[in-house]
Structures are given as C-alpha cells and as structure tokens.
Amino acid sequence: MAKSISIYPLGVGDAFTEKFWYSNMVFNVDGREIFIDCPAYIPKMLAENNRVGDQQVTIDKYKEIMITHMHADHVGGLEELAYMQYFKTENPSRIYAPTWLLQDIWTHLRTAIEESPRAGNGIASFDWYFEPVPMGKVHDFGGFTVEHRMTNHLPRTIAYMFDFGNFKLGYSSDTGFDPSLIEWLDQADVVLHECRFGPTDVLGGDLKLFHCSIEDLLTLPESFQRKTHLYHYADDTFDDDPLKPNYDIGKYRLLVQNKTLKLL
Ligand SMILES: [Zn+2]
C-alpha cells in the first residue's frame, strides 16, 4: 500500500518538440523516485527544470529507470548517464526492462561505450555502467508491482501498469490507438496516455500507425477521459496556458511539464 504517489513530468513533448522537453516522468512513491524513460539532453532539461519547476531534480537522482522503447526521445540520455560511470562503477543506475529490451539497449550503447580506458583488455560491459534488471511479466519492486504489455508502436514498445495495492497507475507509452490496450489501462485509477493533436497525415504517411489521435481518444467513455492525462504532445497543443488547449480535448487533461501531479 502506498501512502503518497505523485507524478513529476520533466518533459511532455513529442519527438519533434522545440518548445517542451521529450517525455520523461518521475513517479514518486513514498519518497522513492522511479524515472520513466531517459531522453537525451538531461543536463539542459534539468537546468531549465530547476529554474522554473515545482521540484529540484539533479542527474544523480536517475537511479531507478524504466524504459519503454528504443527511440532516442526515450533512451538518448542513457549514454549521458553512462559517462557518470566511465572511470569507476559506483552506485550505478538500475535499468528495469524485459530481457530483450535490455539487450537492445546494450546493442545501442555498445558501439559508443564498449571500448573503455578502464578495462585491461579495453572492453567494457553493460553492467560496468548500469545495473540491468530483467523484468518478468509482473515485476516485484518491493512495495508495489509493475506489469507490462506491448503497444502499437515501432519499434517494440511496452506499456506499464503500476499496482500499489490501494491504487493503480497506467502508462500507455508510445502507441497507436488500441482498444485492447485501452481496456487494459482502464483497470487503473489514473492513466497517462500519449496523444497526437492536429493532422496525422504528415511526413508523407499517417502517424496514426503508431501514435494516437485525439479524435480516436474522444470516442472513449467519459469515465476513461476523466481519469486520463495526456502527454507526448506537439508544440501547437497550447500557446501559453495548458488549461486553454488549441484543440477540443473533451474531459481529458493535459499533463503539464514541471508541475507536480499529486495522485495520493
Ligand atoms: Zn516512439
């Protein structure tokens, strides 16, 4: 059972954002901080956060990180974190993910950081830099559990369901509109869902293949809308005031960067 749960969004933007930071959340559970994803430009993001945000966050707080998928706006900061352990391994960050995703992460990082000045043979391994923790279908975090399932996104991407005993929190990750995923998320008391506002027929194709339009989300029942906060949105979602979006968002609310959202 959790006594207090809050969400602190360090970033809420999509992969093309110039106005926000890439989507990156801190879930605070009774003082324990779990980071969802680790996008690029962490030092710049935290410097701005620490000027304008509700909470002060330093890079050494990234000690427990859950990864959703391999796009750079979700994992680009892992290499930045790895350099903190470049010369010595001390209190490395834990990365939680299914085994296949941990393998993808090291495959991605390996070409940049495998060759190291520390090793006798000049070759470093993943666990020099991080403590990789393979997650089963339901992972026991000690005090709460987290279940995951696949979403409609490319490359392979996982959504998360946190179960705190007395409260459930669902995280869609990047995904196209998926009624079965919505049904799974609907067991949660609060849901964070990605959202694309505006046209989806851009870049010579249709973003709806792997991102979720507000039009599709507006077809869902009001009960789902009321408990769901939208994130991973584009720069034109609102001008200055997130309470005055440029689009009809029904009963949904926008997750606001650098503002604490207290759940419990
Ligand atoms: Zn993505």
Describe this structure in words.
With 264 residues, this protein is α/β, with parallel strands linked by helices. The chain has a single domain, classed as Metallo-beta-lactamase, Chain A (4-Layer Sandwich), CATH 3.60.15. It has helices at 42-52, 72-75, 77-82, 99-113, 126-129, 179-185, 214-217, 222-226, and strands at residues 5-11, 24-29, 32-36, 64-66, 93-97, 130-134, 138-140, 145-150, 158-163, 168-171, 190-194, 228-231, 253-254, 261-262. It has a 7-stranded mixed β-sheet. It is globular. It starts with a strand and ends with a strand. The model has no long low-confidence stretch (mean pLDDT 96). The structure holds zinc ion. The site of zinc ion has 4 residues, from loops.
Question: Top keywords for this entry?
Answer:
binds zinc ion; seven-stranded mixed beta sheet; Metallo-beta-lactamase, Chain A; alpha/beta; 14 strands; 264 residues; single chain
Query: Beta-sheet strand percentage?
Result: 15-25%
Return the average pLDDT rounded to an integer: 96
Number of beta-strand segments: 14
Strand order across the largest sheet: 6-5-4-3-2-1-14
- Kindly report the CATH topology: Metallo-beta-lactamase, Chain A
Structural class: alpha/beta
